[in-house]
Amino acid sequence: MTQATATSTPFDLDRLAAPAALDAGALGERRRAALEAFRSAGLPGPRDEAWRFTSLAPIARGSFAPAPRPDAATFAAVERRAAEALGAAWRGPRLVVVNGWAAAVDAGDADGLTFGGLADALAREPALADLLRDVAPEAGALAALNAGAFTDGALLRVGPGAALPDPVVVVLATAAGDEPLLALPRVVVALERGAQATVIELHLALEPGATPAPRVVHDGLTQVHVGQGARLDLVVAQLQDDDGVRVHGHHARVERDGGLGLTLVQLGGRLVREDLRLLLDGEGAEARVGGLYLAGDGQHVDDHVWMEHARPHGTSAQLFKGVVGGAGRAVFDGQVHVREDAQKTSAQQTNRNLLLSPQAAVNTNPRLTIHADDVKCSHGATIGQLDEDALFYLRARGLDRDVARALLTRAFAAEVVDALPAAAAWVGDLVKARLTALTEVPA
Amino acid sequence: MLKIENLHATVDGKQILRGIDLEVGAGEVHAIMGPNGSGKSTLAAVLAGREGYEVTAGRALYQGQDLLALAPEDRARQGVFLAFQYPVEIPGVGNAYFMRAALNALRKARGEEEVDAIDFLELIKSKMQLLEMNQALLSRSVNEGFSGGEKKRNEVLQMLVLEPKLAILDETDSGLDIDALRIVARGVNALRGPDRATLMVTHYQRLLDYVVPDRVHVLAGGKIVRSGGRELALELEKTGYGQLAGTGAR
After folding, report:
1. Chain-centre distance for alpha carbon B132
2. Domains in chain B, ordered, with CATH?
3. How far apart are CA A249 and CA A292, in angstroms?
4. Nearest-CA neighbor of B81 among B239, B188, B183?
5. Beta-carbon separation of B72 and A411 below 8 A
């Protein structure tokens, strides 16, 4: 194998084109360095520890061109889909990003809120580039690709002490084009000292149906900064997407006494991969993470979580639940890492999986690495089926087998769904509908 | 109401029921007594349709139709109710929600209108009063964190809500103190009527002081070895099951 083929990728990187504001000055230099890192690493393969159970083979032999800015009709169609999904919650500050490009924004007029398309914001106020942090090499090659080549996205900053009255909605959509596309959106969420906000990030594909080969590869990255004493509730909802390949990272840093509540709900897709990297970087920082992933026939969902406690008195709690039906497949890989300085850390990680069929499969791998000696940490994982005794109990009271299965499956997911903030109650309805479909068994 | 003929059943290939014959008429209450391992709970499970039990011979007719051919939910919809010996905890499913769903499943099957949440709440609260139950149990998950006595009362509560034609009580009295037993019995008696029947599976004579049976049957070795009136239970209380179990084995 020659050097050239070892680093070849399915992405046509010669055609990358981003707004000028992104390639200028120090940011431009950082982008070029990150892109170089991706070029030398290439697409992750089965030898990469982080990709052992998730194969990128479906895109490895394709050819994906950097997505151009979509036309107005496409933006409008995505907006309709989003409005339909959110219902009454489709109000307040909101922004639609399609294939990595931002539409015009409804920024609202909340005090302390800076919100808009990322490229626009950086063109207007170059100093905002400081909010974009470099991506650590451990975050992987696809994070480096986003760092080196993101086209646009959303930027949201909440000033010191400001509390947003309404949730902010960012839609990250993909839309197929004439040729296979690569979408590279970047979202930046920064809460300054004492700020408070609820942010909803909605992932959807404009044409979610299954196609023979992926038509869009989404390689996105959301960087989150929770300042001292700030509080962010972040809901990430991924609607079913059997069309494309969706790889997204959420990298968050929480400062002293800051709090991050994150709920990640994935309804499934051809290949959905999440890399959650949380750094508790101040004393008393807190992160509460709830995750629910669903996968049915032909779907593959993979969540990788890295929770790092860097300072004392931090608290983290993670609850990830998976429901896998048909011949679906899910992967959970969770690592809690407690640094030597992070005494009095309390960290908890739980992963529970429900298999609805004999063909469904889950790989789970929760891990703890502790370098401090005065900490309280626990973790655990389970994989199981619906409780036969409970099923019989419900049926003995007159409930149909399918109804009983759906009820028990919803009950399994309830722990995560019920913890959603009120502004994201609509996510619960989508989960319910999807679970009912997953539990139906052909007679 | 219920007619069981020569019923044989196996669990994991092991013969448990070896030819049960039993007839329970409308308006009657029958008690099935017997030592541990005699097949009492197996009989209840087979009648309710639990999986894992194989009927190898015989039949059970309920209101003239083949009960064993029906799915568990269809048995329930036609008026058969099993009060579980060990009620199942179902985290995440609200107790009130569950009972209303069950009631509505039955009503729907009978072509009746569904009961809305408000009417249901009124209905269930009156039944809970009769059973001296804490209404906080309504908002908890089904049986989750309930004490043993609360679970048994919750079974009887479901029975009162669903108003079955044939109620099968599988050791509903075990583990209850005398006050709880009296309350549970009150619930069972509340449902006695000319068009209903009750089959009580029990290990102890005690329950029969409060729910007076029309007939008492002794099950041993998978067969009914003796049947009689209420006095049979009192006799058993004195002599124990020892000799009878021997009878069954012969």
Report:
1. 20
2. 2-249 (3.40.50.300)
3. 16
4. B188
5. no
Predicted pLDDT of residue B248: 42
* Alpha-carbon span B213 to B227, nearest angstrom: 12
Task: Tell me which chain A residues have a C-beta less than 8 angstroms from the C-beta of B101.
Answer: 399, 403, 407
Angle (CA) B174-B177-B178 rounded to 5° is 110
Three-class SS of residue A399?
coil
Helix runs in chain B, H state only: 40-48, 72-77, 95-109, 117-130, 148-162, 178-190, 207-210, 230-239, 242-249
Q: Does B105 touch chain A (CB under 8 A)?
A: yes
Pick A396's closest partner by Cβ from B48, B90, B101.
B48
The ipTM is 0.95
What total number of domains does chain A contain? 1
Domain that holds residue A95: 3-391
Give the residue carrying structure tokens 């308006």. B27
Each residue's pLDDT tens digit, A68-119 = 999 999 999 999 999 999 999 999 999 999 999 999 878 888 999 999 999 9
One-letter identity of residue A258: G
In a domain, A209, yes or no: yes
CB pairs under 8 A between A and B: 74
Q: Identify the three-state secondary structure at position B39.
A: coil
> From residue A157, how far is each of A111, A117, A234, A262, B205 by CA, in Å?
11, 12, 14, 17, 74
Identity of the residue numbered A335: Q
Is position A113 within any domain?
yes
Within 10 A of A241 (CB to CB), how many other CB atoms are there? 29
- Tokens at residue A318, please? 């993670």
Residue A431 within a domain: no
**Which residue in the set A388, A401, A407 is minimally distant from B93, CB to CB?**
A407
B-chain residues near A394 (CB < 8 A): 90, 98, 102
Residue in B143, B145, B152 with CA at minimum distance from that of residue B177: B152
Residue B75 C-alpha, separation from nearest chain A C-alpha, in angstroms: 8
In a domain? residue A418: no
